[in-house]
Amino acid sequence: MRSSWLIAGTSLIHFGRKSGRLRLLSTPPIGWTFLHTDGAVNVGSGIGAIGGLFHDYVGSWISGFGRSISISDVLTVELWVIHDSLELAWNNGFLNL
């Protein structure tokens, strides 16, 4: 089973692959942008990956990013996902996150 996303009205619904549960993620107020991020690292190899997506108050996808990070640890991956998220938000004028 894979993780799935669904936009229903003004809400984003996530079906978790591991939990098998639906989560209703509320959308931000009008004029705001919502950001979802995630990062992971294989502690054996030290290879990490990060990604994120931005959607508007209606739940429509605006932008996203993803990339791998060589030789890292959990803290490094989390710091990179924060950095890349804020950089993309700033460059695209998403000031209300």
UniProtKB/TrEMBL annotation:
InterPro entries: RNase_H-like, RNase_H-like_dom_plant, RNaseH_domain. It comes from the Eukaryota. Residues 37-96 form the RNase H type-1 domain. This is RNase H type-1 domain-containing protein.
